[in-house]
Design a protein that fits this description.
about 400 residues; 4 helices; about 5% helix
């Protein structure tokens, strides 16, 4: 039997492998962030109550950047097409607890395909089109959602706006324009629409100018109305409706609609300004605890200054006004002022300080809905949803450190 020399065997094997189709290249990235700090609020109570009034100092987490860890990756399928996925879990950097009990990837969990010529199509738990296109103009970019989201995050411009069972398409950019649409299946037997969420958005970016218009609708799983899910904060599709002291009396809505417009202008590498307008409607059904559609209109602006290569400063203002409905004689109004300072110690680590003040006026509905008319009370951003102020005014401040990996 003739012996094959080792070197010749290796050359023959390499030649045989070279004749086979090339395996697609793939990559997987582990990433995350941890953010802890100390926060102060001037007055505190529990949601649905007006008693209390004591100030509070406590550890806060996920303020500048939500605590998270995740995996994301892609596989080259050829012809410019890639398979993509992302799995992301939120947690508390203060206690180590998961952000949503019983959910291993509560922030994002999707898979899909992308191609520069045809766009991106994904399926799973993810941010709906409304938020994806509005986020660059959101006040949370520099003011944070914790202190700087519009009161109670009434318009869903913070990162909590995710939806389960979502199919999302985003087009390529053509002449500065791109479009996106998403539909989140409710899965209710006998009704394709009940419990669902759908959204659409159009964006234009050209040099220093950017603008977006977006719309979304969140449908209750019960056609006649009633609470959004077991926690009274979500539809069957998992989309959050932002229950807070601002909207507590309207959580039994049959549906919620959000319309938003955002724009930004960059003066130079140091200065930029962004502005948003939103219209949010809480639509009653047969089983709702309120009778008339309640509408919240919000306008806000943020001025950002990159003072040095390491220091970012920002200031913001927003005004929210509800319509007079459901027996309310003086509609609720919320004025909010924000300041932020961020100092980068490195590319991955930074220190931050935040200050915010809100003043509420007028009336709103209490937990019991129609007939339960109460004075509007302050609730900064979306970091105090369960612990709003017991009075019309609220001041909050915080300092912290964030590290990305």
């Amino acid at each position: 039997m003739k012996r094959i020399e080792p070197v010749k065997a290796v050359i023959a094997t390499a030649a045989a492998l070279a004749a086979l189709p090339a395996f697609a290249q793939s990559s997987v990235t582990l990433y995350g962030a941890v953010d802890n700090g100390i926060g102060y609020q001037s007055s505190t109570t529990t949601l649905g109550s007006t008693t209390g009034g004591r100030s509070a100092v406590k550890m806060v987490t996920g303020v500048w950047l939500g605590d998270r860890f995740g995996l994301k990756g892609s596989e080259d399928l050829g012809g410019g097409t890639k398979a993509i996925f992302q799995l992301e879990e939120g947690f508390s950097g203060a206690t180590g607890a998961e952000s949503v009990s019983g959910s291993i990837f509560s922030r994002q969990a999707y898979v899909g395909m992308t191609n520069p010529a045809f766009g991106t199509l994904t399926a799973g738990r993810q941010y709906a089109s409304y938020y994806q296109f509005m986020s660059p103009y959101s006040p949370t970019t520099w003011l944070t959602g914790f202190y700087g989201a519009h009161p109670g995050d009434v318009d869903g411009l913070d990162t909590i706006y995710r939806a389960n069972n979502t199919i999302l398409y985003t087009s390529p950019t053509l002449y500065g324009f791109s479009v996106s649409g998403s539909y989140s299946l409710g899965g209710v037997p006998g009704s394709f629409n009940a419990g669902s969420t759908w959204a659409t958005a159009l964006q234009y970016v050209n040099g220093p100018i950017g603008a977006t218009v977006a719309f979304s609708r969140i449908n209750n799983s019960t056609p006649g109305g009633g609470a959004f899910g077991a926690s009274s904060t979500t539809s069957n599709s998992g989309a959050e409706i932002g229950v807070s002291a601002v909207t507590n009396g309207y959580q039994t809505a049959r549906a919620q609609q959000r319309f938003a417009v955002g724009a930004m202008y960059k003066f130079n590498s140091s200065w930029d300004v962004s502005a948003t307008y939103t219209n949010v409607q809480y639509i009653p059904g047969a089983d709702s605890k309120f009778l008339d559609t309640e509408i919240f209109n919000t306008a806000g602006a943020v001025l950002h200054w990159k003072a040095t290569s390491a220091l970012d400063l920002a200031a913001g203002y927003s005004y929210t006004r509800a319509t007079r409905a459901n027996g309310i004689a003086s509609s609720a109004q919320y004025q909010q002022f924000n300041l932020s300072q961020y100092y980068a110690l490195s590319q991955r680590t930074g220190l931050y300080a935040l200050e915010a003040y809100q003043r509420a006026n007028g009336q709103t509905l209490g937990t019991n809905g129609a007939g339960d008319i109460i004075s509007a009370t302050a609730t900064l951003g979306d970091g105090f949803q369960t612990t709003p102020s017991s009075t019309r005014s609220m001041f909050g401040a915080g300092v912290g450190i964030v590290h990305r990996f």
